[in-house]
């Protein structure tokens, strides 16, 4: 099921953003075969809880052996997409770079996921989400006035600036290949995607309606009506009452005679009033008060919480005994769904290679070129 049913993807296993992108492709209906190294790679937990690997089978191949590389080339000949997240040049040294693969399959979409991109002075340098955000300017945006930048876990760089841009690029290249009959390389760099995410604020900066100083702007906690506030039980609520009609409902619900929000000089006093007010009730009490209103006040919940709206939509599900987010977005004719749980590296080597038409599997296993977990 899913709108990508019939699309075949070879994933050369990596960490973080490339697996997330392949997870999405699998949930959209593509058949994704993950090529793991024997023994697997780094993970935040045991393989069965590495949710980035859900939805697809794993075959373990030792790409240091020519026989294993030959297997990947034979998989590429059948594939629509290949995704790799190595440092620039690694795939080429393995004999699996874009030129190698396009010589086998000219229609192949070759997706490359890196932090710094395939070229530039930092291309061969190590980095992580926080570094790409820092250089792109995105990290500078996040934080309170007078304070340091705040780290948004690895959601903004790895997955928003990285994985989602890779998926968009792959889908666009697949669409173009239907017309041209030619594949192409998609160079998805987290630093590029993170910079691209700041487009609206770059326009505001040019217009003079955004300042470089953190915590002084409309959307970065500079405005007291767009911020988080502590409640009586030490939890928090988020307030996003930007538009005048929503702000009016906020003030009405709170029963306040508040300072003029249109006068920034009164913002410190308004913030003080809102801080003192929200500390008078618990988070649950505020949630009940604002439930169903347009005041744009919501409780700040922990991961995978059972809020009624999330329950009604099935935003989180229990799948194979693990609480996790359901696939997104949603489709009315070709619905997506959760399929396989995360696989152990090499769990499906024999069956997956056989399904892809590889015949000499016993020889591969005997030589160590392939490993069945």
From TrEMBL:
<dbReference type="Pfam" id="PF02515">
    <property type="entry name" value="CoA_transf_3"/>
</dbReference>
<feature type="region of interest" description="Disordered">
    <location>
        <begin position="325"/>
        <end position="347"/>
    </location>
</feature>
<dbReference type="InterPro" id="IPR050509">
    <property type="entry name" value="CoA-transferase_III"/>
</dbReference>
<protein>
    <submittedName>
        <fullName>Alpha-methylacyl-CoA racemase</fullName>
    </submittedName>
</protein>
<dbReference type="InterPro" id="IPR003673">
    <property type="entry name" value="CoA-Trfase_fam_III"/>
</dbReference>
<dbReference type="InterPro" id="IPR044855">
    <property type="entry name" value="CoA-Trfase_III_dom3_sf"/>
</dbReference>
<dbReference type="InterPro" id="IPR023606">
    <property type="entry name" value="CoA-Trfase_III_dom_1_sf"/>
</dbReference>
<dbReference type="GO" id="GO:0003824">
    <property type="term" value="F:catalytic activity"/>
</dbReference>
């Amino acid at each position: 099921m899913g709108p990508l049913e019939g699309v075949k993807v070879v994933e050369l296993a990596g960490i973080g953003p490339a697996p997330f992108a392949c997870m999405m492709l699998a949930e959209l209906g593509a058949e994704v075969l993950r090529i793991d190294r024997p023994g697997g790679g780094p993970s935040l937990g045991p393989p069965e809880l590495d949710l980035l690997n859900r939805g697809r089978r794993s075959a373990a191949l030792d790409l240091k052996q020519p026989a294993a590389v030959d297997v990947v080339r034979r998989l590429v000949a059948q594939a629509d997409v290949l995704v790799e997240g190595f440092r620039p040049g690694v795939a080429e040294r393995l004999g699996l770079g874009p030129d190698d693969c396009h010589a086998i399959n000219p229609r192949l979409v070759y997706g490359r996921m890196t932090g710094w991109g395939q070229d530039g002075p930092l291309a061969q340098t190590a980095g992580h989400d926080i570094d790409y955000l820092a250089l792109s300017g995105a990290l500078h945006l996040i934080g309170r006035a007078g304070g340091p930048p705040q780290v948004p876990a690895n959601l903004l760089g790895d997955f928003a600036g990285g994985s989602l841009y890779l998926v968009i690029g792959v889908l666009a290249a697949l669409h173009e290949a239907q017309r041209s009959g030619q594949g192409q390389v998609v160079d998805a760099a987290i630093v590029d995607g993170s910079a691209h995410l700041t487009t609206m604020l770059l326009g505001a900066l040019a217009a003079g309606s955004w300042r470089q100083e953190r915590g002084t702007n409309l959307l970065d906690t500079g405005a007291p009506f767009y911020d988080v506030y502590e409640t009586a039980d030490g939890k928090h609520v988020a307030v996003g009452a930007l538009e005048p009609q929503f702000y009016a409902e906020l003030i009405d619900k709170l029963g306040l005679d508040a300072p003029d929000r249109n006068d920034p000089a009164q913002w410190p006093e308004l913030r003080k009033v809102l801080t003192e007010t929200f500390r008078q009730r618990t988070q649950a009490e505020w949630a009940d008060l604002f439930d169903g209103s347009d005041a744009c006040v919501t409780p700040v919940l922990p991961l995978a919480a059972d809020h009624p709206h999330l329950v009604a939509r099935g935003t989180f599900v229990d799948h194979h005994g693990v609480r996790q987010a359901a696939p997104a977005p949603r489709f009315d004719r070709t619905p997506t769904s959760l399929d396989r749980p995360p696989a152990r590296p090499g769990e499906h080597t024999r069956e997956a290679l056989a399904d892809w038409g590889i015949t000499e599997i016993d020889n591969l296993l005997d030589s160590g070129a392939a490993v069945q977990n």
